[in-house]
Amino acid sequence: MLKDYKTITLDEQDSVAILKLNRPEKLNAFNMQMLEDMLDAIDYVDAHDRLKSLVISGSGRAFCAGADLSSGEKTFDKSFDTRGRFESDFRRDAGGILALRIYNSLKPVIAACNGDAVGVGATMQLAADIRVAHKSARYGFVFARRGIVPDGCASWFLPKLVGVSKSLELCYSGELFSAEEGHKYGLVNYLVDDEEELIKTAIQLAKKFTDNSAQVSVAMTRHMLWNYSSDIDPENAHVMESKLIDFRGASDDAKEGVMSFLEKRKPNFTNKISKDFPAFFPWRESKFNDEN
User: Fold this and answer.
1) Cα–Cα distances in Å, from 173 out to 124, 165, 233?
2) N or C: which end of the chain has fewer CB within 10 A?
3) Largest CA-CA distance found in the chain, in angstroms, rounded
């Protein structure tokens, strides 16, 4: 166990951090304590160079049943829970705060969906780089059925994965759909049959991403693709790529990358996320992070 938390667990397996939502008796329903625990855990993973990637999954038979509705009719009333982050006359929604933190992660993030993922349980997975799901898992963007609207920046993430029309269909109806349907839509990248294979598959993917790649380059690439793929033209992407190629081209990692290829051996990259980022990073950061 890397750290102790009230609503999650955080473990390490061969350079991969494994975060599990851990309220199984409540089907891992999301509350403000879980938000704080997850934010702290992601900060912890980012801060430790030996942890090269992050897998997010659930304990028990659900991934996350959505928001904890135990407060009844006041569940979504901002006057009831004042612990959220306020910005003038509105409160930043908790799912969006979490999604932005995952979006701003310096390590690759893989969602390993072990069971039903509803509401914020579905939207928190959208900011992951890859989604692996057990075939028995189900997803549901049920917000309209609860009288609210999608959270977790889903109106930005979901259309990028499944298109606008399918996003509207899923959010209008609020119906549960299978992981296999999600795979067909483009929401789920990989399906597994065996529950024991879920985390194993996620770790294998994480290792494939990081074992032979420079961790600083992986972090930069993550932010480049998430950020510039949404621009209306490639101009800004070219400017940033040019700056980063120059910066990384003079690094020890670049020298090692070339020489390991020429010498036909596995690379030994030594640059670290904690100390070898360019001075001009981050080139983009959420407004929430800037102000808090």
Assistant:
1) 19, 12, 34
2) N
3) 66
Opening angle at CA 198, ends 194 and 199, nearest 5:
140
**Cis bond leading into 282, ω under 30°?**
yes
CA atoms within 13 A on the CB side of 84: 21
- Residues forming a β-bridge with 15: none
What digits encode the pLDDT tens for the residues 226-257? 999 989 999 999 999 999 999 999 999 999 99
Cα separation, 60 vs 254, whole angstroms: 44
Q: Is the torsion defined by CA of 85, 89, 93, 99 positive or negative?
A: negative
The full set of domains in the chain, from first to last, is: 8-210 (3.90.226.10), 215-291 (1.10.12.10)
Amino acid at 147: G
Q: Which helix (H) or strand (E) holds 249?
A: helix 235-249
Q: In which residue are the tokens 């010498």 written?
A: 263
